[in-house]
Amino acid sequence: MAPPILKLDEISLSFGGTPLLAGASLQVEPGERICLVGRNGSGKSTLLKIAAGMVEPQSGEIFRHPSSTIRYLEQAPDFEGFATVAAYAEAGLGPGDDHYRVTYLLSHLGLTGEEDPKTLSGGEARRAALARVLAPEPDILLLDEPTNHLDLPTIEWLEDELTRSRSALVVISHDRRFLEKVSNATVWLDRGTSRRLDRGFAHFEAWRDQVLEAEELEQHKLGKAIEREEHWLRYGVTARRKRNMRRLGELHDMRARFRGHKGPQGTVQATLSDAQESGKLVIEAEKVTKRYGERTIVAPFSMRVHRGDCIGFVGPNGAGKTTLLKILTGQLAPDSGTVKLGTNLEIATLDQRREDLNPDETLAHYLTDGRGDNLIVNGEQRHVTGYMKEFLFQPEQARTPIRNLSGGERARLMLARILSRPTNLLILDEPTNDLDIETLDLLQEIVAGFAGTVILVSHDRDFLDRTVTSTIAPADPEAPDGRWIEYAGGYSDMMAQRRGAIEERRKAEKTEKAKVDDAPAAKAADKGKGKLSYKQKFALENLPKEMERAEAEIAKREEKMADPTLFTKDPATFNRLAAEMETLRADLTRMEEEWLELEMLREELEG
Fold first, then answer.
1. Does 220 share its domain with 315?
2. Which residues form the ABC transporter domain (predicted)?
3. pTM of the model
4. H or E stretch covering 557
């Protein structure tokens, strides 16, 4: 086993009251890929900041290998003092680091580098921050929610980039599929302490459940042992004659352990408040379009949404998902076409920007709309502190300003408000941002069991697969042109249907090509010539030479790309060679097929 390059041991930290961290540990070895998991507020981000040297713990030991480099991805990057995104990203490089790496990363992240940091959207800011921490290829990467605000193509690219990277990795994320792809070890932060599983996230949830079951069984055994000892204390003959002080002390210790045991943090318990049933037809859109300047956001698009449907929108950032969603829900007028909303609609919306939150408002005021200490949930009057407990907020937080909440707590608060309102049409725009995995599980159950209609925008593949009945995506995800297609099922179903459509198109193109290629031969046969044309003879004689040249060119590029330092030293050349090889191989395949067809035709004609 390689020695650790980062080790946190018995880390403790408290901000008053219950300690946030109470003996947590984290050990990172070269090349290791660890996912750090735990409930919102369990201290994951704080532990990552301690590892990065940004926060000092109150006690515990920290070891960082002197020669190791560490880069930390901040939730809110600071662009102060940087005129361009490229300048910001290059500031993360160390002596001897390759500046071409910044250009490569910005290009793949959809940025030119010339952008003004002051004008960046949330997704663009996250991409710039990723370029800054990935560029130096550090020994240790500490990533806090790297997929937030990223679209699916970028998330999938990031998965591949991290898989190829030599850096050790500690990552916090709510995206199950992302964690499954990039991790080979799991550290679970729970009630201030940490547990480690030397397997990736795919095995975490089953292991966690086993740990909690064993813990519950141990508590049950301890309770029974206390009952036996108390019985002895009261009725034991020896005990009445002379107290056994050692045994009595052990009983006091057992009682203290039993009372002091903190079970796992509770789960969110909530259901949607049902409104009056909507009409059977919820939304009918007929040939709606939308343009901004020269750009088409929605080409003529038609669809019907029926009561009980759960529809997901996917696509790259800027493709127009939120625009189309607003058109369908009547928040934005189309340039042409019509949208009809059904009857008896009660709409509740969770906005991705959390714009509904006033940072100076208290939690209780936000949940009750300022109407005292009570609210109506499913027709019943509830006290706000009791309702807050169902969403893991403490009663003393009722008078806390929203500005003091973490990102995950804000998302949970908005979810609490939405679920208290009667609704039969639920609009969720990026609902999974900042939610922990357990709260995501609850949201999935609510959406799946909701009797009304749900329309959601999400980049979370696992969430989409578990909830939606159909998926709407751009016809061309690489270059959205306003055309949208509805696919049956979730994200994985959509990808399977796309692959099937691509295969069918390729077969059709190949069949059409074969017809075109066979036409001269058929024409010659019809005329009774019984021989190849001059053009066919020339191709038959010269194609082998052209194939040899193509093979030689491919071999040259393979030899250059075999240099393990090429990508690091000159990524632009590496990418150019890879593109040239792909073109050469496609040409070689085409020439081989053409030569084989001509050779078969020659044999047939010579008979």
1. no
2. 6-216, 283-524
3. 0.69
4. helix 534-561
Measured CA to CA, the distance from residue 368 to residue 169 in angstroms comes to 43
The residue whose two tokens read 């001897």 is: 96
Output the six-digit token pair for 604: 């047939």
Examine residue 27 and state whether it is found in any structural domain, yes or no: yes
Q: Looking at the structure, do residues 252 and 381 belong to the same domain, yes or no?
A: no
Strands, DSSP E only, in 173-243? Answer: 185-190, 193-197
Residue with tokens 């042992």: 225
pLDDT at 258: 58
Residue type, 373: D
Q: Which residues are annotated as a binding site for ATP?
A: 38-45, 315-322
What's the pLDDT tens digit per position in 407-428? 777 878 888 888 888 888 989 8
Are 42 and 176 members of one domain?
Answer: yes
Computed over every residue of the chain, the mean pLDDT equals 84
CA 434 to chain centre: 10
Give me the pLDDT at residue 528, please. 46
- Tally of domains within the chain: 4
Q: How far is CA 302 from CA 306, 324, 488, in A?
A: 14, 11, 15
Question: Would you list which residues are annotated within the binding site?
Answer: 38-45, 315-322
Enclosing H/E stretch for 292: strand 281-292
CA distance 214 to 209: 9
Q: What range defines the domain where residue 240 resides?
A: 207-260
